[in-house]
Amino acid sequence: MTEEIIPIIQVQDGSTTAKWYARLGFAIEAEHRFAPNLPLYLILRRGNVHLHLSEHAGDARPHTLIYFWVQDVDAIALEFAATVIEQPWAHEIQLTDPDGNRLRIGERKG
């Protein structure tokens, strides 16, 4: 049985936030609205990693923190002009998306 954890984060404007996540290499895999004037729900994907963005206020807590492991933290740091921090376990950066959600992004050492 395959198991996967997929974070759902609350956003104000899913389309705008999805463009920001595209800079991290995420692409929209699917989107859903129950009706044209109702909140948007987006499924993003970067390789084998999924992230869901929801405009529904009850789906997630605002201003959350998510940790991602990547193989290209230096390239991401360059894209966002972020400073790489050396930790004992990883090279890390921290970003904040347009909705105040924090991302810690690390590349394992060794």
Question: What would your notes on this structure say?
Answer:
- The structure is a single chain.
- The mean pLDDT is 95.
- Helix content is 15%, strand content 38%.
- It has helices spanning 14-22, 73-80, and strands at residues 8-10, 27-32, 41-46, 49-54, 65-69, 85-86, 90-96, 102-108.
- The strands form two sheets. A four-stranded mixed sheet has the order 1-4-3-2, with helices on one face. Strands 5-8-7-6 form a four-stranded mixed sheet, covered by helices on one side.
- It has one domain: Roll (2,3-Dihydroxybiphenyl 1,2-Dioxygenase, domain 1).
- The protein is an alpha/beta fold and 110 residues long.
